[in-house]
Amino acid sequence: MHDPASGPSLTRRQFIGKNILVAASAIGAPTLAAGLALADSPTTNPSGALPESALESLMFEHGLIERLLLIYDKSAAMLDQGRQLPAGLLADAGDLIQKFIHDYHEKLEEEHLFPRFVTAHREGDLLDTLKAQHNAGRELTKQIKRLTQGATDGAAHDGKQLAQLLRSAGTMYFPHCARENAILFPAVLDLVLEYEYKRLADVFGELRTKAIGDKGRKKISDQIAQLEERLGIGDLAEFTAKA
After folding, report:
1. Could you tell me the fold of the domain covering 54-236?
2. d(Cα 111, Cα 183) in Å, to the nearest integer?
3. Cα separation, 164 vs 166, whole angstroms
4. What's the predicted TM-score (pTM) here?
């Protein structure tokens, strides 16, 4: 960790810039200007050079969760209209939600994030609600999988009930993710020391690899994209508001 007595710590970009200034004193201002431009250019950071932090990891995963919820939302709208869904789409989406959300992401939060708040006596009411919603989400997934089981032709056993369950998932999880992003996750920085926070990212990475495999998040992102294409919501521009 940084020793406060040695002065304020430098960000990575500040460190690079400082060393460019030292080197440029011997080679002239034109080279200095070029060096500063290079240090500021995103193209100079090779892939993976900047490690992902623990909170960045969680918020990125929320983005994937929200894309799955949009698949549920579009499916519910189609069912309301009496339209048949692409064959096996909801079964595939349900499997991803079970594997990625319930068996990995929520479990990680409950075992490695929530206990820190319990120990610190912080956000007790919020934690109770989040845990209750995790349980409710698992029950929703069970019911959705039951209604879609064996519906390989895209038809549902009870389209009206299924549409209601799909909408309920979005109604709960969109504000759930928003509260975690805006309230819970930022508060983690108040509860851990710098070395603990860095270690937390390593722990998350190890758990992620164990749960969904090496580069598992990228694979899941690709699977979600395929589901979006099958459902006709793969183009972000389709969601642009029209005045």
Report:
1. Four Helix Bundle (Hemerythrin (Met), subunit A) (1.20.120)
2. 18
3. 5
4. 0.78
